[in-house]
Structure formats: C-alpha cells, structure tokens
Amino acid sequence: MTTENNLSENEENKPSVEIQENEAKIEKTEENNYEEQHSDEDQHVVAEELSLADTLKEMEKIINSSDAGERFREFNALKDKANHYIHDEVEDKKHEYVDAGNAPENFSFEHPSQSKLSALINIFKEKNDHFQKNQEEEQKKNLDQRQGIIERLKNLYTNSEPGTNLFKSIREIKEEWSNAGQVAKSEFKILNNNYFHHLNQFYQMLDMNKEFLEQEYSHNLEKRQHIIARAKELENEPVVQKALNELQYLHKLWKEEAEPVAEEFREKTWDEFKEISNKIHERKTELSATIEAEQNANLEKKNEIIANIKKLAENLENANHNYWQNAIKQVEALRTDFLKTGSVPRKLSNVNWNDFKTTLRNFNTVKNNYYKSLKGSQQQNLEEKLKLIQTAKDNMLSEDWDIAVSLFKKLQEDWKKIGHVPKSMTNKIWDEFREACNTFFNNYREKSSASTDNWKENYKLKKDILEELKAISDEEGSVEKIEALKTSWNNIGKVPRDKMAINSEFNRTLREKLKLNKINELELKEEGLSENQLTDKARKIKNQIADLESEIVKLENNLAFFNKPTRDNPLLRDTFNTIDDKKAHLETLKQNLHSIISGE
C-alpha cells in the first residue's frame, strides 16, 4: 500500500461548503469541550458531612497532594466548613460564660484547632499562588503557540513558498492546534474563531486552485520518477552500505516531497519504488560478508594489541623506572588504538573485551609491584644524593676553577644517574642541591667576568710574542731567543675563548723554528710552566728517553754481528756516529728531566 502524508482523496475533493460546515461543527465542539472542561470552576464543591477533625485532615491531604493548587474550590469549601465548626463552638462557649453570670465583654477563648486551621490556610495560599502563577505562564505560552499556528495557517494560503506541500502542511497545523494546551478563558473564543476563519479561507483558496493542485500532482510525479531512477542506479552501487543509506534518504524524500500525486499514479509508482527497494535490501547478505571480513580484521588487530601489552609486562629482569615510564606511554597508546578499532564478531566480542581488560589489569599489577619494590632502594638513593649535596656544599665557594668546574659537572651527572627517592624528600633535597650548584656557578661567572679584561690584555701580549717568533731565523743565538720567547709565553695567563686559536698558531710556529734550528722541543729550556705543564713535559721526556735507549741498544746489537767492529770500517762509520748523536741527545734529555724533577 502506498504511504501518503497528504489529505485523503475524499478530503481533497470535498466541496468547500461541506468543509466549512464540518469545520463549523468542529469549532462548536471545541468550544463546548472547553466550556465542559471549565464548568466545574463555577460550581461549589459539596463536602460530605465531616467532623471538624476530619475536615482538617481532608484539608491537610489536599495540601500534601501533588495537585494541591488546582483544588482550591474543594479546599475553600472545607475551609468554610471548618470555620463554621469553630465559630459555632466558640459561640457555645460564650453562651456558657454569659449564662454563668459573666459580662460578655470579658469573654476570651482560643479554640484549640484555630492555630492549625490558620497554618493550613497559609500553606495552601502559598501553593495556590504558585499554581496560579504557573497556570498564567503556561496559558501565556499556549496563547503564543496558538497565535503562531494561526499565523502559519494564514501564511499557508496567502504567502506560501513555491513547492510547499499544502496538504501536508495543513495536516500538521491541524494536529498542532489539536495538541496545543489551554489558554485563558477570556482569550479562547476570539482565538478559536480566528483559527477557524483562516482555516475556512485556506479551504476556499484550495477549492479555487484546482489548477494548482494539478500542477502539484505533476510536479510530485516528476519527483517520484527521479527518485525511482536514482533507486535503479543504486542497484549497481558497489558499496552496499552506501546504497542502503541513500535508499533510506530516498524514502524520506518520497514521504516529504513527492506526495501527493494523481490517483492513477499512486499505486503504480509506489509499487515500482517498493520493488526496487526490496532488491537493494536483498544485497544485505553482501554487506554482511563485508562487515564480517572487517570485524575479523578488527579482531586480529585487537588481539595483536593485547599481545603487545602482554610483552611489556614480561621478561623484566632489567626493567627500571625509565622502562616503566616508556611502557606506560606505550600501553596508553595501545589502549587508545584498541578503543578506536571497530567492532569484532558478536560471538567473540565479550571474550576479546575481557582479554583486553585482564591484560591491562595484569600490566598495572606488575607495574605497581615494581614501584612498591622501589621503596627500599629509594632510601639508598636518598643517602647517595645527600652525599652529593654535602660535596657540593663543601666546594661551592672554591675558586680552583680547573678542578671545581669539572667536579660540579660530574656531581650533576651523578645526580641524574641516581634513581628515585621518597616522594616526601624529592623537592627538599633537589632545592638544596640546586642552591649549592647555583652558588658555585654564579661565583664562577662573576669571577670569570672580572678576569675578561685581563684575558684581552694577555691576548695582545701573546700576539706580540708570536710576531717575534715568526721573525726568528737559524742564525747564531736563535735557540736562546726561542727559549726566552717560550718562557715569556708560559708566564702569560689565559686569553678570551674566541681568541684561543692563537695558542695553536704559536705551537705550530714553534715547531717550525725548532726544526729550522735542528733542536728537539723537549730539549728546549723554558720557565714559567704550570704544575700540569711540567708533569706533562716530564712524561713526554721519559717516553723519549725510553725510545732512545731502545734505539741505541738495537744499533749496538747490530754492530755485534760484525767481527771486530771499528769506526775505521767505512760500512760502520755512520752507525757509530748515529749512536753517538743519540747518546748525546739522551744525556741532554736526562738533564732536562732531572731539572724538572728537582725543581731547578
């Protein structure tokens, strides 16, 4: 059967007179209903014959009910009855008082139930005021809603947008009017008359626009044909889910924009559209196969994620804090991937999810056990860091920069290598260590800054010495000049960091001049060397002495292969001369080494 949202054929073809008569009946009926709904408000609630105590109980029940504010007529009747009881009893007491011979003006009596009645009246007044306020707000909201409906109805026949489905719109308007809430009685009659006036105007317009109706039928038929044509194309859509989604949209268009059409086309076009829809729905088996393949792939991926999490909690002999921090980040990323991955086959969904949760719990258990075990080692780490702090404090005022700078850099490196300490001590010991380090390096920077000007002057002096060294040749006395320049160079302090290349240039020039004058650097007499420089030079001389002694022994052994080797032998003359030179060189080196060791 066709699904139509517009008025039925009989409704569409009603004569306007009949429509007006029916609507007039509706109007009268709605007015009657409204009067019936509110007629009880004009009648007094007749209470049963109740005692005063029972009357007060009934009043209390009304106050405690959820609709207390709406029952003001019933409450007022009970209130009047209670007041009547109390008044009568007070009058009886007064008569008894006067009959006893007392003056009427001296009579005073407070009824025991008066205070309770007053309290009930005050409480009910608050609830009734609240109810009346809500009633007024609700009626005002309903009035605005009904006036809006009337305005839409008016626009429907006076200013409709092209292509508006009048039949669908009028049905929606009538349904909304029927469901709209009550308004104030003073507003209802005028509002209701206004609504049915415009409703009659709409039907008169519809009756006079048969041509429009035919055009609407033709336009909607064309839409149906386009929808059918698109549905036929969807039969060949390779992505089944896409075809189903678009088919659902086409059905929505059919209901909302392709109705009504002429009667002779209604069943025909619907049956054709329905047949094509059924064929597309038959392809769900194909979709099921695709979904199954995707779900199996998702299951494989999720199982792989679970396996990766398990690996992170296994083989942990060498696991440390860094390992666990990295593992926590990896697990969080794996967890996110797991949750982002699509569904798995329904029959395995619970098992897969439980495996995932169990694996996560196991990982967290192993991780937590590790950190619990750290508590013992944290105390040891604390003791080691306290030792570093003490060393830093002992040396933070040192100005032996060559040693102290290296020391503090090593202290900082050692600090990083030591593991966690108890959380309560972390900030305290770090602040102490940082303060000691900052004290040293601030002092170092201040003193270094003060010596910068001296370093610049040192650079100028060294540059002059370098120029003098470059001018030396191999003439007599050159070695003595070189020794004097080297001593002067040694007595000059540091140069700025960006000018340190002058030291390399000096050493390179020095080696060239020594070579030119045929003298070994270790034989050079120089003064002003620092303790480290002297130690280094002594080490080099010792190595050179060992090498020379080894060479001399080797040469002398070679001479032993000859029968009675003498200097007269032309073949051995050069060997003897080489041995003599090396022994002379050896003696010079030994004297220099002795001078360094003895401090001469």
TrEMBL record:
<feature type="compositionally biased region" description="Basic and acidic residues">
    <location>
        <begin position="22"/>
        <end position="43"/>
    </location>
</feature>
<feature type="coiled-coil region">
    <location>
        <begin position="531"/>
        <end position="558"/>
    </location>
</feature>
<keyword id="KW-0175">Coiled coil</keyword>
<dbReference type="InterPro" id="IPR007139">
    <property type="entry name" value="DUF349"/>
</dbReference>
<dbReference type="Pfam" id="PF03993">
    <property type="entry name" value="DUF349"/>
</dbReference>
<protein>
    <submittedName>
        <fullName>DUF349 domain-containing protein</fullName>
    </submittedName>
</protein>
<feature type="region of interest" description="Disordered">
    <location>
        <begin position="1"/>
        <end position="43"/>
    </location>
</feature>
